Amino acid sequence: MTVTTFSELELDENLLEALQDKGFTRPTAIQAAAIPPALDGRDILGSAPTGTGKTAAYLLPALQHLLDFPRKKSGPPRILILTPTRELAMQVAD
């Protein structure tokens, strides 16, 4: 199945609303390829040019996981995002 809109993905309504508020309605090629297997809990490895939405390709499934499995009590971090440079870390944080 080819994903043509974010609404076709199994994302929480809050995530879909946030995407729409930012003007994103259609996933890029890397997002359409990476998000479905990531949502299924599979590992993904992707490569795409700068500015094509790789960050959202892994963050949206990570955020969905946090929403699907809310923390019952405090504990260690459940998701760790590593970046190779400080500049990229700042972009991801934004």
Automatic annotation (TrEMBL):
Example of a GO MF term: ATP binding
Record bears the keyword 4Fe-4S: no
Domain DEAD-box RNA helicase Q: 4-32
Domain annotation Helicase ATP-binding: ranges: 35-94
One Gene Ontology cellular component: cytosol
Keyword Membrane: no
Name recorded for this polypeptide: ATP-dependent RNA helicase SrmB
Organism: Klebsiella variicola
